[in-house]
Amino acid sequence: MRDVQAHDQPPAPASHGSKGKRLLGLDVLRGIAVFLMIEQHLGVWLWRGLSPGETMVEDHLGLLVFNALGGGAAPAFVTLAGIGSSLLATKRAEAGKNPDRTLALRGVAVMGFGYLLSWLTPSWFSWHTWFVLHLMGFGMLLTPALRRLPTSALLGLALAVLASTGWIQASLDVPLQLHNEYMRGRDPRSPVDWTGLRIAVAEGQFPIFPWFSFYLAGLACGRFVGEGKLGRIGALAGGAATVGAVGLAVRALASPAAGTALWRTTTLTIPFFPASPTLVALLLAAVLLGIWAVMAWERRWPLRASNPLVTLGRASLTLLILHVWLFREATRPIGVWQALDANTAMAVLLSFVAFATLASWLWQRVGYRYGAEWLLRKLAP
């Protein structure tokens, strides 16, 4: 087994294999994910939008590309959380310690951070919200049971989550396009009697169906990483791409009616609220391919702890919470919310990324003390 060292770094609870050296590639992946999340959010939250006569493709191609790339950030975080949970469980089990209590505590803590973010950002979220942190915490809470399953069962469950999503969406009559007020339970059409459960299951930003498939795939990939079998991650990416391709073929051949379970399974609605299994499978393939590429790079060309993407990744939970509150809430009173032209918005975006990179690089010298990651380690040692 590869020589790797245990450590505690959210959003995944750990990024280690069995012994020795830290897997900095997983930190790099978190750093890339948090960068993509920040640039996507800020591009939307700061820019005032198209002027008369403008188009996204001809006049703002850079912002369009940035926004599209940002769509992979949250899926990457969820997959990496699964990898970290898997590695942590393996490490502690090999040391003769039961990992279940730590995993459960971390699940509660990460979900707590999710509800803290809901409280800090009332313009976007509510107590009913089911965002990426809620999904990750939910996965960690279930990991004490999931870690006892064979890898084939984990992947079978992931496929079952995808396969049942279209039927669940159709059975609940989930709107074909979800907007923010509905996803936080504030829309008059929201089913108020059990809106919180419905949002978590199928109607939130990142509901269990279909997004929990990313966490399950991450649990399997964590085993591959710990065993040094990175090729299996690439193979899993190919399998996910095949599932997505089958969905595309079915849609082209069957032309299902809008709103049916088959239509919901095979549609490619952008933005992905609600997400279809076909789109999710294609996103999963891209995320897994990125994980395979970075981990293979680290194996051949070792990374340094001072790498800016590593330090960004090690502060990713803090940066996730901070940038949402700062640019979603704090900018409104000063008139910056969706008020800037494209060039100014891009300048602010890049300036904040540069600040976050420098701050995280300096912060590593004191072990990221008092950040969300530090607090998580205190709450769930």
Kindly describe this structure.
It is built from 17 helices and two strands. By secondary structure, the chain is mainly alpha-helical. It has one domain. Helix 1 runs antiparallel to helix 4 and helix 4 runs parallel beside helix 6. The longest helix is centred in the middle third of the chain and has 24 residues.
Features:
381 residues; mainly alpha; two-stranded parallel ribbon; 17 helices; 67% helix; transmembrane; transmembrane helix; transferase; acyltransferase activity
Q: How many angstroms does the end-to-end distance come to? A: 25 Å
Shape: globular
Strand content: under 5%
Output mean pLDDT: 89
Q: Helix tally?
A: 17
Helix content: 55-70%
Q: What structural class is derived from the secondary structure elements? A: mainly alpha
What order do the helices and strands follow? EEHHHHHHHHHHHHHHHHH
Largest sheet: 2 strands, parallel
Spatial sequence of strands, sheet with the most strands: 1-2
- Rg on CA atoms, Å: 20 Å
Count of discrete domains: 1
Question: Could you give the count of β-strands?
Answer: 2
Give the low-confidence spans.
Answer: 1-14
Keywords: Acyltransferase, Membrane, Transferase, Transmembrane, Transmembrane helix
Transmembrane segments: 28-48, 60-83, 103-121, 127-146, 153-172, 208-226, 233-254, 274-297, 309-326, 346-363
Protein name: Acyltransferase family protein
GO molecular function, one term: acyltransferase activity
